[in-house]
Structures are given as C-alpha cells and as structure tokens.
Amino acid sequence: MRVKLTRRQALKGLTALGAGAFVLGFYTWRWEPHWLEFTYPPLPVSGLPEGLEGRTLAQISDLHVGPEVDEDYIIQSFRRVQEHAPDFVIFTGDWITYRGPQGLEQLRRVMAHAPHGRLGTAGILGNHDYGFRWKMVEVAEEIVTITREAGVNLLRNEALRIAGLQFIGLDDLWSPFFDPKGILDARGRDAASIVLCHNPDAADRLVWEGYQGWILAGHTHGGQCKPPFLPPPLLPVSNRRYVAGKIGLSGNRQMYISRGVGHLLRVRFNVRPEIPIFRLSRAA
Ligand SMILES: [Fe+2]
Fold first, then answer.
1. Is residue 83 helix, strand or coil?
2. Angle CA(156)–CA(191)–CA(81) in degrees, nearest 5?
3. Cα–Cα distance, 273 to 224 (Å, whole number)
4. Which of 241, 207, 202, 3 is nearest to 93 (CA)?
5. What global pTM score does this model have?
6. Residues with beta carbon < 5 A to ion ligand 1?
7. Between β-strands 253-257 and 42-45, what pairing exists: parallel, antiparallel or unpaired?
8. Ligand 1 centre from 105 Cα, in Å?
9. pLDDT per position as a tens digit, 2-56
C-alpha cells in the first residue's frame, strides 16, 4: 500500500515536472520571442531645436530576417510602429541572418511594409549584414540597396541632418569598414547629434574624442535568455556592462541598447523583444 502510494506520488511529480518543462519550452520558443514590448524612454539631447521638443523616435534593431524569425511577426511589428506615428524611425542593424541569397529576397518582401518616420528614416548595418564571418561585402551592398529602395537613409560612416537633428551612422565594428574616426572628428562636435552604432563595444574604442551625447545600439538582444536576478550568460560583447537599456559612459556620453526585435536561435526567456519609442527633449 505504502509502495503504491509512493509510486503514484512519484508519477504525479514526474507528470507535473514534464508538464512544467513543456510549458516552459513552449513559452521560451513560441511565446516570448514574439511578445514585443514597446518602451518609452526619454531622450534628452543638448541643442535640440525647439521644434523637435516632444517628438518621437522609434528604434528598430536586429530584425534578423531569415528562417528563424517569423515574417508575419516582423510585419506586424512594423504595423505597430507605424500606428505610433513616430517622427523618426531608426534601424540599428542586423537586418538579416544570412543563410543564402533567398534571405535578401525575404528582406525585400518584408521591407515593403517598413514603417517610416514623419520627418525621416535612417539606419545602419550590423555584423550579420556582412554574411558569413562578417566578410561578405557584396551581401552588405545588397542590403544597402534594398533598404535605401525602401526609403531608409542607410548611413555608412556618414552623417545626415533631418529637421535640425543630426544622425551619425557608423559602419559595423566587426565589418571590414568600421572607420568612425573621420566622421566623428568632422561632425561629432555639432550640436543636436545622435550616433547610431550597432555594436555597443564600439563605445570603448578610442574614436569618440569630442562627441558628447547619445549612442543608439543593438546587437546584444539583451542576452535573449536571462535567469531572474542574474546577468544573461551569453552576450556577444567584451564589456559585460553592455546588456540592454540605458548605460552611462565616459565623456558625457550615454548609450541605449535595444533588446531588438528578432533573434538568432528562437529562444527568449525573461528578455522580451523591444522597440523603444524615445521622446525627444532639450537636455538641460
Ligand atoms: Fe543581432
């Protein structure tokens, strides 16, 4: 009798454990990777033109168009951004996860639904946009063409002024074309600037002299999986401070790292995908 009860209890326990593992697996695989969160951080910019006070900027990062991310989820995310009617839309790289030329066609299809800022739309490239080993320059060129045709001002170590606000877009840190010094020297001191830089580790390179202000980054996906109260175990950065959200930097600089829209492996736990909709204000 006693043995029977113990077996039943053990069976019950195992069933509960199995059900728990199934639910957790389903959640991390099917639910959280598509459970997009809109956040609304303030973005105080020094020298911001008066007319831009209170305007909004949506940052879309790490789409990772490819076999791992549902196309419908990305298009739906684009729709939700457009419903916010942001004044600026900024893409901060990793448009695709490259598996072959079909991914470029998929990007073209997806970008037909891309949201645009009422005042302007700009973007940069990430490491994955350079294909295998981040060296496929021809893939990056295709992405530049596709995104520009979709109405994005794709910046490669270039600056663009929209309505009095300057966006300095850097090419990717791991790409063959990371060369920010020229553009930062030339335009980094200009008032009302925001730097777009995919990989947060670039903030630690000795190229920022004179630039004060915001750097908008992505790349980490927030780690994708994070045990409660602990840092995420897997982060593609050297500086372990660079996980997600707002980070204070030396030289009167600040960085915001978006957790991104897409993913590499389809798993997210305790790190929901994110699209920040910043509210611009004049820094005191
Ligand atoms: Fe990424």
1. helix
2. 60
3. 8
4. 202
5. 0.93
6. 62, 94
7. unpaired
8. 19
9. 556 677 776 677 777 777 777 788 788 778 899 999 999 999 999 999 999 999 9
